[in-house]
Amino acid sequence: MSEQWSAAAPLVIGGGWQTVRVVLDVESPVSLRLDLTDWPSALHLGDAKILAADGSMLWRWDGEAPLLSGMVELQPFASSDPDVRLFLVAQGFDPRGTLALAADILDKI
After folding, report:
1. pTM, full prediction
2. Which of 30, 76, 84, 107 has the fewest Cβ atoms nearer than 10 Å?
3. Alpha-carbon distance 6 to 77, whole Å?
4. Least confident stretch, 18-32, 36-50, 76-90, 91-105
């Protein structure tokens, strides 16, 4: 992982649902790693999608397939809230995972 290949998005703690938008300036990524937080926390995820520069949809998480692979210090749990597709507990100070994307999606980025 290199800082030159990273992008950050601000997030306000608490206060309900938030949309986090990350703009990638990368050619031909081989994976997309998400470092979701820098401290232990609980995260509710409702949706995830990747849009092209022109706004067209390249990928949208269906909520059924795993969103992340290779999780480190992240534990997924079931949620009874229909708006929460994924409930994660982040442990430690470097929780992360890789978006579980097919190679053809990465080729379109």
Report:
1. 0.81
2. 30
3. 27
4. 18-32
CA distance 101 to 38: 24
d(CA 98, CA 56): 22
Strand order across the 86-90 sheet:
41-45, 86-90, 74-77
Q: Which pLDDT tens digit goes with each residue over 63-95? A: 889 999 999 999 999 889 999 999 999 998 889
Gap between the Cα atoms of 51 and 13, Å rounded: 25
C-alpha pair distances (Å), 35 with each of 9, 62, 69? 11, 21, 12
The DSSP bridge partners found for residue 86 are 45
